[in-house]
Write a structure and sequence with these properties.
Length: 91
């Protein structure tokens, strides 16, 4: 009986601290949507996490596009590139 209680206590301790070990994604710093190129996203933005970093997108439609090719769009956001002349949905 004592072993069972000790096991439960250990499992509880491990599970309650497990969240503290998880790393949070770095906050988004991009001010231009890497998918659409839209600026001024305040109030309608969407966020997506990729490889431990958070990216701000202008809308849920861009979130779907970002997730189709996350490495390309993350690189655009990291480089601060504006997407101009790309075929994309209209807002």
């Amino acid at each position: 009986m004592k072993k069972w209680i000790v096991t439960l206590v250990v499992l509880f301790a491990v599970s309650s601290t497990q969240g503290a070990w998880a790393q949070e994604a770095a906050p988004a710093t991009n001010m231009v949507c890497p998918v659409s190129g839209e600026k001024g996203m305040a109030g309608k933005e969407s966020y997506v996490e990729h490889k431990g970093k958070q990216y701000m997108l202008c809308c849920k439609m861009c979130e779907k596009d970002f997730l189709k090719d996350p490495d390309t769009y993350a690189a655009k956001a990291d480089a601060g590139l504006q997407v101009e002349g790309e075929a994309h949905h209209s807002h």
